């Protein structure tokens, strides 16, 4: 047993109570505790620390964008499915045409909903990995950081392409809604309502297939006028308006996705600098404590 014990009482105290390393204590408050194994948390602060850690790991911006996207996709697919069904019935019963590709459009709508839903789930997953303490735990290695940056870049490219697609769909819906509005104005005109004149659509023959007979473009029977105006045009106009609103929500959500992925890309890229700063701070604190012990 040594006769002399040169160990100071302060060295037996926890790091947070020591007066030698205040900068290390400050760094430990805002970084992961696994990086500072000697840093101890008081028992009374454990619950609040855990709750704060959980809330800082949630990508709120990405979740808001996902909510907008899911809402827009739901509204668009439901209203377009209903609108396509009404269009098929109108073509069959009013203009005596059968358009097979309208059934294909229904299948495409289901695929669009599934694809956008899968994309939303993957972006949410990337957002969780690049947020808070999860980012510091996952992207420690160089390979993980490169993979994270590549995944963010790939998703940004996909969303950038999808924006052009949805802008094109938005333009088509604007044109379709305008045409249906013109049809509705013809239906509620005085000539049709009071004088029971025929609804003449021959000036819109370019909108119909070439096989359409000209006499079918003049709607004169009361039953056909009622079906065309009340059962199709009135309902379809509302459906296409709602579909346009859904596409607006989708475009806003895609812009939010781009902002979130850009921020996640920057966080993952700068994480290496943050790690180097932590190591440099630890080395400086260790050297400062050693020089104090010498004297």
UniProtKB/TrEMBL annotation:
InterPro entries, per the entry: Myelin_PLP
Gene Ontology biological process terms, A to Z: neuron projection development
Alphabetical keyword list: Membrane, Transmembrane, Transmembrane helix
Listed GO CC annotations: plasma membrane
Origin superkingdom: Eukaryota
Membrane-traversing stretches: 60-81, 108-131, 152-184, 238-259
Keyword Acyltransferase assigned: no
Protein name, entry field: Neuronal membrane glycoprotein M6-b
């Amino acid at each position: 047993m040594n006769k002399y014990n040169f160990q100071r009482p302060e060295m037996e105290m926890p790091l947070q109570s020591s007066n030698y390393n205040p900068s290390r204590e400050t760094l430990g408050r805002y970084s992961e505790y696994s990086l500072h194994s000697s840093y101890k948390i008081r028992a009374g602060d454990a619950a609040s620390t855990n709750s704060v850690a959980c809330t800082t790991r949630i990508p709120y911006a990405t979740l808001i964008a996902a909510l907008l996207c899911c809402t827009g996709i739901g509204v668009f697919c439901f209203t377009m499915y209903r609108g396509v069904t009404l269009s098929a019935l109108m073509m069959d019963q009013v203009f005596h045409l059968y358009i097979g590709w309208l059934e294909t459009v229904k299948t495409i709508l289901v695929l669009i909903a599934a694809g956008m839903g899968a994309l939303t789930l993957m972006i949410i997953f990337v957002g969780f990995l690049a947020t808070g303490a999860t980012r510091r735990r996952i992207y420690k290695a160089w390979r993980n950081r490169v993979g994270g940056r590549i995944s963010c870049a790939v998703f940004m490219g996909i969303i950038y392409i999808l924006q052009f697609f949805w802008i094109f769909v938005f333009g088509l819906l604007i044109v379709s809604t305008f045409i249906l509005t013109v049809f509705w104005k013809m239906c509620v005109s005085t000539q049709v309502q009071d004088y029971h004149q025929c609804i003449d659509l021959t000036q819109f023959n370019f909108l119909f297939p070439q096989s359409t007979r000209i006499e079918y473009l003049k709607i004169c029977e009361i039953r056909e006028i009622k079906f065309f105006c009340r059962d199709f045009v009135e309902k379809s106009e509302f459906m296409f308006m709602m579909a346009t609103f859904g596409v607006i929500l989708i475009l806003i959500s895609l812009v939010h996705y781009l902002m979130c992925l850009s921020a996640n890309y920057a966080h993952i890229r700068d994480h290496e600098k943050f790690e180097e700063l932590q190591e440099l701070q630890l080395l400086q604190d260790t050297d400062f404590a050693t020089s104090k012990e010498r004297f």
